[in-house]
Each structure stands twice: as C-alpha cells, then as structure tokens.
Amino acid sequence: MSPRWTAVQGASRTAAGSPAEARRLRRWFDIGAWFKGIEGAIEIVTGAWVALDPAALGTLLVRLAAKDLLHDPHDRIASTLRHLASALDGNVSFPAMYLIAHGVVKVLLAIGLLRDYKVAYPLAIVTLGALATYQLYRYTHTHAVVLPVLAAVDVAIAWLVWREGRQRRLERVVPAGA
Q1: Of 40, 103, 141, 149, which one is least surrounded by beta carbons within 10 A?
Q2: What is the pLDDT of residues 156-165, one digit of tens each?
Q3: How far apart are CA 49 and CA 56, in angstroms?
Q4: How many domains does one find in the chain?
C-alpha cells in the first residue's frame, strides 16, 4: 500500500470518523438534499398556484387564521396572517416570483448535490448560508418562531454539504479501488 493511499485513508477516517459514522452522515446528507429538493418543488408549485390564482393565497391565509382568531382575537400568528392577507390584496407577483425562484434554486442545488457535481457543494453552502441569514434577519422584524428553526435546519444541511463535499474530494484524490 502506498504512503499516499495510507495518508488519504487516515484523512478519510479523520474527515468522517468511523465507516459507520461516514455512512450515517452520508445518509443524513442524502435526506437533507432530498428534503431541500422536495421543499423547492413545493415552493415552485405554490408560487405557480399563487400566480395563477392570486385570491387563493389571501383566502388560504384567512382560513388558516380564522380558527385561531375565534379562540384568541389577539393571537400573534393569526393576526399576522390576517394582516398579510389584507396587505396582499391581489398584489401577489412578488410572493409568487419569490417562491418560484427560491424553489428553482433549491431544486437545482439538490440535483447538483445528489449527482455529485463539484460546483454544487460551494454553491449550496453559500445559498443555504444566505437563506439562513435572511431568515434570521426577518426574525428580527417578525419574531416568527419558525424562522430560527428554518435557519437552524439550513445551517445543519450546509454543514452536511460541507462535510460531504470534503469527503468526496478526499475520495477523488485516490479512488477506493487504488
């Protein structure tokens, strides 16, 4: 066995820990990439739906808020949904385009990651970091509890992407059969 192969094996063990841990982390990476891809597809469908039927978003938001407002007229989330529905008032071009663009980016990154395109790893890390930053920024204005949770999920997936990209780089240096 060559010294280079031994060094790569050692680096691989250091990067992923034990082989069982490497398999577990790779499984979580795959789950995260699929999750982001499916989430992106849902955003594309939702954005298209909102673009084709602008009143649907307002109706949906009012329906989501109605039950909570009956129980507590001062409920923060329900009041925010009701306010958002009234603020849209037929002007849904930005939300629709945002959802579609956001969804397309997520789907393309998920495909790139699952097909192991080298460029997808840094792009995904930067994109997920930007999304997490934006979600935390929005949290400072809206105080919506879900935003830090979504940001934490994006940061966790970005870490998995970084770790998987590093592992795949090590595997490219010396193929497993060498």
Answers
A1: 141
A2: 999 999 999 9
A3: 8
A4: 1
